Structure formats: structure tokens, C-alpha cells
What we know:
Elements: H1 2-25, H2 28-47, H3 56-72, H4 75-88
Helix pairs in contact: 2-3, 2-4, 3-4
Amino acid sequence: MRNIALFLAAAGFGAATALAGTAAAQSPEDDTGVVCDRLNYRFQFDFKYRKSFPQADTARALHRSGVEKCESGDPAAGIADLREALRKIEVEPARL
């Protein structure tokens, strides 16, 4: 009985360590990738309804630039461009 208790305790500790290791392995770079994806999706969704806005062409160019920067390894600049693209079509990306 004691061996079973020790085994269960060791298994629980191992599982907790594995879960903590996975969470700790996520870096801020992973978060910036998610933000890039969400801003890209948000722009594509909203742009369908705002193509006629005065700064739509500028917004489209900023969007392309932002996506390219996110994909080429400069997510901070890409996020800035994507946010500005959304602002050009009068969408405030407050939570992203």
C-alpha cells in the first residue's frame, strides 16, 4: 500500500513539473505571433465592410507591410503596422 502511495505522489509531482515546464517554455515571442494573427484576422474581417473608407488604400498597404514584418521575424513592427491599418479604417484595436 505504501508503494502505491509513493508511486502516486511521484506521478503527481512529475505531471505538475511537466505542466509547469510547458507553461514556462512559452515565450513572449509566442504571444506576439498570436497578436499578429488576431490583428490580421480583425483587419480582414472589418476591411470587407470598410473598403470605401477614405484611407482604405493606405490601410491595405499598412496591413500588407504588417503581415510581412510579422512573418519575417519583426513582430513588434508588424503589430504596430497592423494596429495603424485598423485605425485607418476607424477600428480601434484596444484589446489587441
